[in-house]
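Entry 14. Ran structure prediction on the chain below.
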Amino acid sequence: MTNKISVIITAAGSSSRMKSNINKLFLKVDENDTVIEKTLKAFIGFDNIVEIILVTKKEFFDKFLKIKKSLPLNIKLVEGGNSREVSTFNGLLAVCEQSQYVLCHDGARPLVSKDNILKVINELSNFDAVITAVKAKDTMKLVTEKNEVIKTLDRRFLYNVQTPQAFKKELILKAYKKYFENSFFVTDDSSVVEDFTKVIKVVEGDYSNIKVTTQEDIVYIREILKRGAI
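Output, structure tokens:
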């Protein structure tokens, strides 16, 4: 694929569930890198990625400017909003004209593999929307608001969705503008575009590609990296 891609990395969360005085993005995962540094380094080496748009809090700009200088990436800093959706949209508005596609990724997913990123990028030749997901391992129940079981869902067709997710730029911009006009329920970027495209392609991801949410996640990531599994 030769079309140009901008990567939007959302890193504007509060990190409240970490119960730490350090934002989770700046916690060390190994001797060299923090969570966000490991995430950013995953996107080094792709010829069709022309820029990284790092959406974060204004208070973190100074830290990210230092990180930016140490990496061979074209990183653009953009201020985030009060929700993931607002932050992503702010990032979309900063995408350069030459990019035809946008790849969205959580800043707190440092174990994303280059192979996973490449698989998503390659599918953009055939689809306008591509997401990463892994098959559900557990039995899944549909329940009422009172936590009463309605039925058991067939897990053969159920996936846990991750990032990266990639979209044709025109598609996701159009979808987000509609979202802010109507404020319908969404849980990820692909939820925003579901009514605007016929097919969203699912690429098989990795179970190790977790999002850092709690202290236990950091312990897990450090152990994976120590084993050299990534």
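Strands lie at 5-11, 49-56, 75-79, 101-106, 129-135, 140-143, 149-153, 159-168, 201-204. Will compare against last week's run tomorrow.
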